[in-house]
Design goal:
alpha+beta, D-Maltodextrin-Binding Protein, domain 2, 2 domains, four-stranded antiparallel beta sheet, globular
Length: about 325
């Protein structure tokens, strides 16, 4: 979308946003995916309008927690979460199943644990320099190493696939799986136990974003009608319809939602959106970054590198390739 904006292929939606109130009804962190300046996402004029979103939290096996005397409602801090995982390890249970891209998201969620929106803006939108030895990256890299060493995550996760992790969770092997809302339907269809969801304890911001955006081509002949259609999709009736069909709309009324899976996940998304807590995805700022992040976090989980080497690997690529 940044390339399209830079090439002048999309219609500036500022006037339509004021006419229909999109600039006030849509939360700032959701609008960010449609705002661009010189092809850089995050700020500037509005060129795209999101209607839904996604986020990464934890899928939770409530039966395993109950069997081990752990109350999910008490897991509101990192200390409480780690104490619960210590209890599970002592009982012979590996608390977290994760692999592949899940490890990338887990590491970024740990980084966001110490972050605020200014930090997110600096990392994602280049509003300020980023120090990869700052509190955020240092804490997340050392925490991830500690979690592997303490048996919260199996070091063998470095060689597994995301499908392996999903199978491990839905088979009832581990009580926690970091995963995105795109896995909601898979878990709902496969799990034979009581399950729920939770945000990462202590996180004010979480991996996630608004979803795909509506745009109007600059050479379109019916811009007014297109804007009217965009506005229609943001109306309560259709936002509620999206929720009841399994989506995560930005403006749905939870009181009108009956879909059981959406009822597990939408309240957490609403919480993030209301607090402008969408931290986007770690590979978004720099082209080709995903492969670098995945290789680095897999090496860290496998014990092949230190937290310092992990930060050097992801930091040097970011600095060398940022726009």
């Amino acid at each position: 979308m940044g390339a399209d904006c830079g090439a002048g292929l999309l219609t500036n939606l500022n006037d339509y946003a004021k006419k229909y109130g999109w600039d006030t009804t849509l939360p700032a962190s959701a609008q960010a995916v449609g705002r661009y300046t010189d092809g850089i996402m995050g700020q500037g004029d509005l060129y795209g309008v999101p209607t839904y979103g996604e986020y990464v939290g934890y899928f939770v096996n409530d039966d395993i927690l109950s069997a081990n005397g752990i109350d999910k409602a008490s897991l509101t801090s990192n200390a409480a979460f780690e104490a619960a995982m210590d209890k599970l390890v002592a009982a012979g249970v590996t608390p977290i199943t994760a692999a592949d891209y899940m490890l990338v998201h887990l590491a970024y969620n740990m980084t966001l644990n110490k972050a605020d929106q200014d930090w997110v803006n600096a990392y994602q939108f280049f509003t300020a320099p980023v120090d990869f030895n700052d509190e955020q990256f240092t804490d997340s890299s050392t925490t991830l190493q500690r979690w592997v060493q303490k048996g919260y995550i199996a070091s063998s996760a470095s060689g597994a696939t995301a499908d392996d992790a999903v199978a491990g969770f839905t088979n009832g092997t581990s009580p926690f799986m970091p995963g995105g809302t795109w896995l909601d339907g898979t878990v709902a269809g496969a799990a034979k136990f009581n399950w729920s969801k939770m945000l990462a304890p202590g996180n004010p911001v979480s991996t996630g974003s608004a979803g795909n955006v509506w745009v109007i081509p600059a050479k379109g002949h019916n811009a007014d009608l297109a804007a009217e259609f965009i506005n229609l999709t943001l109306q309560p009736k259709y936002q509620d319809m999206m929720a009841n069909d399994g989506g995560l709309p930005l403006l749905a009324n939870i009181d009108n939602v009956t879909d059981p899976t959406t009822l597990k996940t939408l309240p957490l998304f609403n919480e993030l959106v209301a607090n402008n807590g969408l931290g986007f995805y770690p590979d978004w700022p720099v082209s080709g970054y995903y492969d670098i992040l995945k290789a680095a976090v897999i090496d860290l989980v496998a014990g092949n590198t230190t937290p310092e080497q992990y930060r050097q690997a992801i930091g040097s690529y970011y600095e060398e390739n940022k726009p």
